[in-house]
## 1
Amino acid sequence: MELFRVENLSFRYPKAERDALQEINLSVQNGEFIVLCGASGCGKTTLLRLLKKELAPVGEKTGRILYAGAPQEALTNAGEIGFVQQNPESQIVTDKVWHELAFGLENMGLPTETIRRRVGEMASFFGMQGWFRQKTDALSGGQKQLLNLASVMVMQPKLLILDEPTGQLDPIAAADFIATLQKINRELGLTILLAEHRLEEVFPIADRVLVLENGRILLDDEPRKIGLRLSKLHCDHPIMLHALPGAVRIWQGLHIDDTCPLTVREGREFLERHFENRAETLPEPEVPRIGETAVELKNVWFRYEKDAPDVLRGVSAKVYRGEIFCMLGGNGVGKTTALNVLAGLDKPYRGKVLVGGKPIKDYKGGTLYRRGLALLPQNPETVFVKDTVRADLAEILEVMEIPRSEHAAQIEKIAEKLGIVHLLDRHPFDISGGEQQKSALAKVLLSEPKILLLDEPTKGIDAFAKSNLREILRKLKRDGMTIVLVTHDVEFAAETADRCAFVFDGEILSADPPQKFFAENSFYTTAANRMARGLWKNAVTCEQVIEGCRTTGGQL
């Protein structure tokens, strides 16, 4: 049975030069699990919001959207279409977990007994009994996103729409969240339409995958066939190849005539079928040269309130000049807090923070931030203060006392480097999350820092943009910049960092080169490493696995 039909849908934002969506035709059957993917700014969020009329953006729309055979405008029960946003903070409106679960039902005017029964059932289904009465601001990122999902599910929707819901979750929390979606789809028969950049977990469980490019549907097919069709379109559409699950990328890179694998298990079986299992070790990575210390934490303790528990517990770490240092770990373990302490935004009650060998408290009058240190926060919207991206970039150049005659050239140069030229005259709040991330990074880089702190810099950006960002960070490193970044993206960390550190319970437990760090982990590691174990002990990226197959493994 058809639940949704989209016919010749086009959409253009006010004052935009081109359509955000062009001639979209789509049919969604009841009970399907559909994954929507594509580059940042390709129209994913616009399409999803147009399907939920209460969230539809302002602009010029042509074409038709039908729900259950009737025009979308005829739908009176808003609860039939649930929507979970990317940022878990932006959807929570009450102070307690149980209040949040009941909020939508109360607005529907349902009887108290019905509300209590539904809330109890949903809390039990999602395993929320242990934190049912907690304050919402005390929850971890994974718990907040699970609460958003439960708050939508308690309304008993027929269609669940999710816009990059795992963007701020650590790998374990993200996998748990996706498993919950699969359970809902399989056990309740709920129709799910999910937009996502992280395809490793969602690709294998989808019934269909839609690939969007420049506002059009490029491909609509089963996941396994998408991998095959994209490999044939490689020359014309290279962007999406970077986003595919590790098993698909390895299969494509080896050009072997075999069924396209989707999961880690299938990828391992594929490698074992075609290559000798000799448990070889790839060459050990070069150990980064230890030079002058750029920033250092010495036995740092921090809590947000006097009577609150410690967030940082005796943290000590050194980051060397010209190094890319990456911190990984679960939601709520203290990564962002450590970054804010390094930036001087939060002051520890014990321990020292040194920048360039000098206590951070000795930097007076903002001297630390003038071509010294810069922070890109997790929420890029906090960086913008003007009505256009161009004006925001010009604003930081004014602060840096760059002559106005040089503004245009510098703005064009950084915009071209980050691929945001087409966004310069757009309002920062009218562009996608990934585009906001790149625009905010452009503003931070224009401050010419020697030490760059990045909090989740890959959040919301597509795989091709991640590749560009990695090359930019490497160039900045070659130019002498020190980079400290916090991320949940293990693949990005494995391909980018000189050293990776694991943060747990307010402490930094280890810091090693990526090959050693990820090869010795079981869960905080890459899909490529999980597939290659037993073949090459320290292969942690798809490229390393492919190279290992070509040079050391030997095809059977």
## 2
Amino acid sequence: MKRVFKILKISIILSLIILLFTSTKRDERNFNISKGLTIYADLFREVNMFYVDDIKPTELIEKSIKNLLKELDPYTQYYNSKTKNELETLSTGKYAGIGCVIGKLDSVVAIMQVKENTPSQKAGVKAGDVILSVNDESVKGYSIKKVSKCLRGKSHTSIKLLLKRPGIAKPIIKEFRRENIQMPAIPYYGMIKGDIGYINFSKFTNKSANKMRTAILSLKRKGARGLVLDLRSNPGGLLYQAVNIANYFLSKGDTIVSTKGKFKAFNRALKAKKNPIAPRIPIVCLIGRHSASASEILAGSIQDYDRGVIIGQRSFGKGLVQTSRDLPYNAKLKITTAKYYTPSGRCVQALDYSHRNEDGSVGKVPDSLKTKFYTKNNRIVYDGGGIRPDIKTKLKRYSLLSESLIEKNTVFKFVNQYLISNNPTIDIKSFDSNDKIFSNFKDYLLKIKFKYNSDSETLLKQLEKYAKAEKSYTRISKEIAILKNKLSHSLSEDLLKNKQEVKRLLAMEFIQRSYFDRGIIQYSINNDSTINVAYKILKDKKKYNSILNK
């Protein structure tokens, strides 16, 4: 009995020591935080009072907040009372404005795209219109960000635009009202090549699951016997929306994602709560480098349960969960509170923000530290680097000519000029076979003396510059001349060599003017090699099943 009391006494003493140590460590931490904040407040007061020039207190404080958060990860962000609407836009996909995309066109800001069923479209604003003023305030010399701020405002407020339209001598005035603009979570869905359904899914906002349900049920009614779910440009969004959408394909009770954080409140397993609406339809999920966060939760759960085939490139690798916290004075903090794990137990986070390099940069999780996990059918999958596709496809790269045409907005400018005196018939399926427009574009490029340099030519120019600076040019001038001659290219020859690619750029610009984003997606489906791979796999049941049962 004495021995028992002695052991009990020792246990109590050890517990008290541990409690005291923990309490001391916690108190020391709290003291250091309090000490630091006191020093910061006094320092700021001294700077405000005695610095030789007047300071801008609000700007300085916000800069210090942003610099503090930079030490964490890029997803932990501060929003003041003026910018908190940006956070709402991220979660809802909604903002108050006029519904267009603006950009720099040479030295001016112009309308680059008009979105469908928005105030801009209804008011007759067109792509190519140069913005001269907003509500009688000249925007000459304004940045894109500053013009965008002028265009946005509260819903139902009036806006007046003074625009310079190609082909019209006098500026035109458009007066209308701003509205709440809802960016579509699913810009397009439909059937491709008979009985295969296709859903282009762009973002996980607060209504995404409802939109996805509508799309799936609609495609099933149309006779879809396979489904292509395109997440290649989906950066993520709300976690619970990913869970709800995964539930459409996975069985009730299946764990879709688990989260683990510092506090127990953030440690939870999110399961499918309902019976699926599409439990057996074969699925191909397309992912790419820009598929992140909630997209990876959806693709990861489909892969881990062997519910569908994943095709494309490795996804972005964001395995972090953010939570919105209220701050004083109507400000907000979006903070990383947990990591998420797919059903097999893997975290797809690719960058290690907790261990920074000496220069402040962060590195990727090395292959040597990546761990094997297993799907329901015992296929091997890995953590630490995004979702790896079951079938990898090559990322399409434009030719140097096409990249230069895009970078310089040359196709956009040509279409603006062409539409002044022409009214072409736009057919999504056959427009890129229009040789007349291609011929006109070729003449346009020759007329404006369009020039571009290859990477090799650019490097050769740099070599020539350095050689002259180092006074060695005379010695190698003959060799440089020979290289110049060999690297020179003919615009006509390059256009002929890349004819089909250039025709597709022209087609997309014309189609966007008439059919908006949904038209671009419809057109792209017919020319997308990855979608073609997905279609073939869904039509070949033997191949589809063999991939999921390796």
## 3
Amino acid sequence: MKLITIAIAFSLSISLSIASELTELYKKNQTPTYTELIAHYQRLADTYESARLLDYGKSDSGEPIYLFVVSHSGIFDADSIQAAGLTTVLINNAIHPGEPCGVDASAKLAEDLLAVGVIPNTRVVTCIIPAYNIGGMLNRGCCSRANQDGPEEYGFRGNAKNLDLNRDFIKADAENTKTFYKIYHDWKPQIFVDAHSTNGADYPAEMTLINTVRSRVEESMRTFFSSGMTNSLYRDMIRDGHSISPYYHTFGDTITDGLMEYMDSPRYSTGYTTLFNTMGYVSEAHMLKPYPIRVEATYSFLKNVVVYAQQNSSAVLSIYNNANKNIRKIKEYGINYKLDTTTNLEVKFESYRKKYRISEVTGLPIHYYDKSTRDTNTIPYYAEYKPEKMIRVPEYYVLPQAWAAVKERIDLNRIEYRTLANDTTMQVELYYISKYETSERPYEGHYFHYNTEVVKDTQEVTLRAGDILIPTDQDGIRYIIESLEPEAEDSFFSWGFFDSILQQKEWFSDYVFEPKAEKILAENPKLKADFEQKKKNDKDFAANSWAMLYYIYTNSKYYEKTHNRYPVFRVM
């Protein structure tokens, strides 16, 4: 990370009046280009002592990712800000550049934060990523979002590698994500907002909100996050004249069936930041509202987040610090949350009447929303998720040095570990992958594994000098478990980082192995009994010579012990 001190040739001469004009572009159904946007922030940084524009490193496009920091304390060192007891809010924009309302809203917010008295923020440090998916923002056009009302031109969802960056926060295929890690772990925000626009249904609300699933929020902070901050932000939006509702994620076929909280697993931005106890939101301005309305609703939400952080700075910091202390004490950790349909809250939701007509194009029925008819219903809101499995937390995980791509991500997330200085023999708990399913097509650059099951074993293994021991007694405990437990839905195993263990390397020739198989059965009565029983119960097995020999082979000393053996070990 470095402070920008060199001139940006394309627009350093921009005047303050022109900078203000940029923040008015949205009213003309326009959004700034990447060049115009960075020039705006550079000018603000040059003009105000309370602002800095920081170059944090590259993106996949080759352009750097910038962080704009507003700190009225005069402190711009992240560690010093934390020591001073200031609250930090991090706002991310243009992760999907076709949804640029946050770009415009944050540009205006930055100006107003720096104008004396407009938004009180002396106890808050506001960090803004002006444009995160720079490659997508540079890929500018008119028409990639066919279901959106404005602006006239905008960026593209995929980044320079055609990745959806809001699926990359664990696997970190993009340089953008690795740079985000630097920003995030430097500044350790207590509150995080990722600005988006919706896709999907039509309804009256200007803004819908995804909050991190409350069941995944550290237990001691749930009430504050849900009943305190989130409810307050809803009230503030309504006070400002903006209609807002929970994100339109339906439980059934119709809105009367209810809504459910969106499960933001760790692949998503807020799912990732929650692993480190940051309280997170995705603002989703409604795509069919005119662009000026979307920007103003987003601006109002961002402003209210900063004001809330200012007014409740001590409480926010206390809740965050307590969560970091408490998370270290857990003995069991839940993974793979599933919706609990036995309990729900209730919300009032205003909707357009959903009707059907015959399509002039297809000649078949198609639904539409009748905006002349509005319904207000009190509907179920399913907000509770329960973990599908509980993991007993080990004292250490062991990562052999061979898995360099995993270690790189461990390092980037500033996870503490100890490197073995000498070869060491150690008794560990380990897993064999017994079952998994794989996507038929690549998903975000990977053939994704899911519904993984494991068999546990205890073995004595030889660890090599250079292998690492990762203690779970640290702030990053949730990241460690979610990424290293193979059954976790967004683990490194799920994303294919350990696929080579799934391929058997040594085999046998049937005519060579058959005499050995006979001897193996003769020397192992239990295996022979199991073998005979399997032949009785499975006709296909009994008719397949190779399958029968392979069964004996896998239960013999000849079968490789490392096939399907997950290479990350647990020390209890």
